[in-house]
């Protein structure tokens, strides 16, 4: 089916026998791209004469690949506009696979579309986009270009119809080779009447139609190098006239205004001049020049890179040579330094050896002197030690005698102190017994006082309640006074009881004595607690004992 459609579109006779013969031995499954290309080149493309409709051929190719690759996201352009952008991409893309369109051609296409929309070109915006694109890849694929134009990034503020008309205008110029088109009035050759027609100027022909939908074609004006165009004066009520002269016919045309007349004359004259010079259409020539310029820049860049590599290689060679020379100089300097080091080392060794021998002699003589001095010092120290030991022995004898006497005195004092402590312990036990009785009495008195206090508090609370009750105020006040008198009597009774107890304690026959402030003199501390006698009493007793001892001796 693909081969038959290609042959139909390209106006090539289809040969089913050759197709069956070519793929007769291929029974392993679907034909790959590499397997189909030899048949396509040999039996179809080699037979193409060029008399086929390129738009229909492009449309068939678009039908094969659009469904698989076209973005599913909503775009600002229609499918027909996307097809035209795809055809323009094939025209402007580089001649290598995979096909991409470089940033320069993207800028050219976006400028053409922007000019066709009548908007201003945003160079700064495209420069930012170009920088972002160059950092990631060399160009865009056909589908990325369709997404870029369909996203409206460079056509903000324009509606779908304006963008579609701009794409159609660029498509007509670049693909259909339409140099200029528009409505003009044409004078008939037979009836001599003026009819409005839609004129389309191409590189070698001017076609005119009933309307701009190009469905009803009325005729062609074949252009060549012998044709010419010239302005005519106004006549027969028609203005803005110009004449197209060819070899066999002459055509009178009328424009709507002087500006369009001048544009058409200039466009037709430029086309005739290109035919005379044998030059391609302007857009194809500009594309070729841009391509040659890119190739030239690429060649210059490659040449510059090659020169840079050569310079880098030469620089590396120079660096290696300099490094070699530096290493040689460093080696020579190292050898010289090593020799100087060895000479200095030999000299130092000789000096060290001589100095060592002198030092050795000095050390031997000094050691002998030190030994003599040490022996003398040791003898002196030995004699001094003997004297110290004799003095120490004498002191030890005296200390031993003093210690014996001190032990005897200590034993006497200890016995006296033990007896005093026993007496003090007995007195302390008796005193603590009376003190405990006194504490119990005080506790009983405190308990009675607490009970009386509690009763008083209760009466005060009752008094506060009575103050709030105004009707019974006087009665409750009398009761409170009576209760207060009773409490007072009890307090007096308790106070009398306490006083009688104090009198009993004070007049007791020496069993206990009242606790009074003690002496301000410091007391002695024994193993059982504070002593019952002061330091002055102890000194007095010691003097007495010493006097008795001296009398006995």
UniProtKB/TrEMBL annotation:
SUPFAM superfamilies: PH domain-like
Lineage: Eukaryota, Metazoa, Chordata, Craniata, Vertebrata
Domain of life: Eukaryota
Domain (PH): residue spans on this chain: 177-273
Name by which UniProt lists this protein: Switch-associated protein 70
Stated role: Phosphatidylinositol 3,4,5-trisphosphate-dependent guanine nucleotide exchange factor (GEF) which, independently of RAS, transduces signals from tyrosine kinase receptors to RAC. It also mediates signaling of membrane ruffling. Regulates the actin cytoskeleton as an effector or adapter protein in response to agonist stimulated phosphatidylinositol (3,4)-bisphosphate production and cell protrusion.
UniProt KW keywords: Cell membrane, Cell projection, Coiled coil, Cytoplasm, DNA-binding, Membrane, Nucleus, Phosphoprotein
Location(s), subcellular: Cell membrane; Cell projection, Lamellipodium; Cytoplasm; Nucleus
Oligomeric form and interacting partners: The SWAP complex consists of NPM1, NCL, PARP1 and SWAP70.
Organism the protein comes from: Regulus satrapa
Coiled coil regions in record: 283-504
Name of the gene encoding the protein in the UniProt record: Swap70
Gene3D superfamilies for the chain: Pleckstrin-homology domain (PH domain)/Phosphotyrosine-binding domain (PTB)
GO molecular function annotation: DNA binding
